[in-house]
# Entry
Amino acid sequence: MLQVIDQARKHGRQVAVISGGRPYTYDDVLERSSQIASFLLRDTGDLREVPVAFMVNPGVDYVATLWGIWRAGGIAVPLCLSHPAPALEHVLRDTGASIILTSAAFSGLLVPLADKYHASLTDVSDARREQAQDDPDVAASRRAMILYTSGTTNLPKGVVTTHRNLEAQIKTLVKAWRWTPQDHSLCVLPLHHVHGIINVVSCSLWAGARCEFLPDFNAAEVFQVFLRGEVNVFMAVPTIYFKLIAAWEKMTAGEQERVSAALRRMRLMVSGSAALPVSVMERWQAISGHRLLERYGMTELGMAISNPYDGERRPGSVGIPLEGVDIRLCDEKDHGVSGEPGEIQVRGDNVFLEYWCQPEATRKSFTGDGWFKTGDIAVVEDGYYRIMGRNSVDIIKSGGYKISALEIEEVLRTHPSIQDCAVVGLEDEEWGEVVAAALHVRQELDLASLRNWLKDRIPGYRVPRKFIVIHELPRNAMGKVVKNEVKKLFQ
# Structure
């Protein structure tokens, strides 16, 4: 029996999920997942790692579908609710999923894709009409899920995790972040990424806690949920905290105080999936009383490094390695480094099995002695890891120095005239690369004065040599693809 199902059975009559304003117990979710598993097992006693794609609304049906696929012995392939048809088509084609489960709202989008790839398409409400039957014996070593990484120059790759990988990721976070059955989390995150699936939903339900779903993020609705005083754990990306801050600042003084009082009563607030600007961390702390817990992870790892639950949570740092996760920093030849920047390499039960049907990409992602090469560059300061950026994306090699674009962006954002920015490296014969910055400004800005302002705050060789002022930065300016687009602005 899978541990996730064993854990759920320990909390049978307790509320597991709040979906559409309605509570569902662990027994309810187990029953629904058993029905879905039985539907999938109609023609066989065990799916034996057959990929099953699903596009289901966040809530009780999502959890039941995920568990049902696992209970039937299949590999869960969550589809992004906001992806256009070509992106969904890539996942279906790459996994070869012959079974697709969906909510009614997505049937119109999926019917032509299911027809094209000769896959069966079933509404989860119809799948739940099946009479429950016994589950097959599913070993922890079996493949459990395929999540797709963001594409850069190539199409996204399918990251395959086993049940053992997922259990290790969940157990580590439940212990590190002190989950208990008394916790009540709110999920506003997309459920085709580790952040939502593992950190929020799976940790909540492993611990016997409640997980409440808001299908679409809306700052006013989130604050209304907080004001009820039940939610005590919240996890989000920096953009969400930025939007919550903006919404709070538009409230009346009385409304602000009520919201802030509700926030101060919460137990834990976490930020991840992107670098957290120090300005956002400090403003949120002033509003909520919480110093956000920043951590580091990726699709291939789950979480690997975290600021402590108790103790100092350092701005700009992702903390220390989690229990059971081995971390080292290495140079380009995979030799360990100390006291200088290096690539984060990871080893542990949390690390994924393979890239789906891409043995060469899998081989290249691991060292000869079994460490996963993340491609992220970090430095250790008094035991705390600070991410400098993505190798060849956020690391600018200029005049023999490795310069973090993220650090320069952090300084630029503190200037009163700059709303946002993106720093990139441009090829240069003399320096190798020179530092350049695209600025989204609030008001007219004198670049000569800005250069002098920067020289007092960062070393001269890191000061951008080229600037361009634009009216709006491309969406998600920290991403590799968009940073390449920013470079084109200088041509």
